[in-house]
Specification:
By secondary structure, this protein is α/β, with parallel strands linked by helices. It is built from eight helices and twelve strands. The chain has an eight-stranded mixed sheet, sandwiched between helices. Strands 6-12-8-9 form a four-stranded mixed sheet. 39% of the residues are buried.
Length: 251
């Protein structure tokens, strides 16, 4: 583990990047964090014991990274949890390898948390299009109600103390599971930034993009059931999503 000299003040925002064997993309991710106009943040990078040049690139940039860890992880979620455990900020956001945040993003995050007294924030994210949807009132019957996790989701650390970290026993969707718990609890206030305030760009070849749609719907159904939603209604939602996808494909 490598640690940069700690800043005198406690950072308001902790940015965490998880990476493994991504030598071609990690530098763009790092640079997008380095150029932030807002400076009161710490940067933590969790490397999954990469075998390519990823760790070499991290070491070359260690002066601008507060904490670097290179260890084997059970999965993505365990690596993310390590970052949360090490964080000192009271607001946490992820920018995973291959994704980037725009230079004004942390300034926007700081503004929204200060001006609106919220517990979590979603920001529009560019993928194949700009993803912009936050409909918490539809959580019981809609699957996709928020834009993105990496680059697009910021949460006060206190919520992790209340609800726990990301579930390492889930192969996929632990971010959805965590956000689902937040929305169902109704204890926390959230907001989405304006549509033209795009927070970042999501890697089209990233981890979540490789999951077939039917499998992602299946995992989301399991998460709903585990969190107490009626089994038969969950099955109904799953079948409805599959049929809707098939209809749109045929059309």
């Amino acid at each position: 583990m490598a640690k940069k000299k700690l800043k005198i003040y406690k950072p308001k925002i902790s940015i965490i990047t998880v990476v493994k064997n991504d030598e071609n993309k990690i530098l763009n991710t790092l640079r997008s964090v380095f150029i932030q106009k807002y400076k009161n943040f710490e940067y933590i990078v969790i490397d999954g014991k990469s075998k390519d040049k990823t760790f070499k690139i991290l070491k070359e940039n260690k002066k601008r990274i507060d904490v670097i860890i290179s260890q084997k992880d059970k999965n993505l979620w365990e690596a993310m949890n390590k970052g949360i455990s090490l964080s000192r900020g009271n607001i946490i956001g992820f920018v995973n390898s291959g994704d980037i945040i725009h230079k004004n993003t942390l300034s926007l995050v700081n503004k929204y948390f200060n001006n609106h007294k919220i517990d979590y924030l979603f920001g529009p994210v560019e993928k194949d299009r700009v993803l912009f949807r936050f409909e918490p009132k539809k959580i019981n019957y809609r699957f996709n109600i928020y834009p993105s996790h990496s680059t697009g989701f910021f949460v006060v650390k206190k919520i992790h103390h209340d609800l726990g970290f990301y579930d390492v026993n889930l192969n996929f969707g632990a971010d959805y599971d965590f956000i689902y718990k937040i929305l169902k609890s109704k204890r926390y206030r959230g907001k989405i930034a304006k549509k033209n305030e795009v927070f970042g760009k999501f890697d089209l070849n990233g981890y979540s993009s490789k999951i077939p749609f039917y499998k992602s719907y299946y995992y989301e159904s399991i998460i709903r059931y585990r969190n107490g939603q009626n089994l038969f209604f969950v099955i109904f939602l799953f079948l409805l999503k599959i049929l809707n996808k098939a209809y749109n494909y045929i059309k």
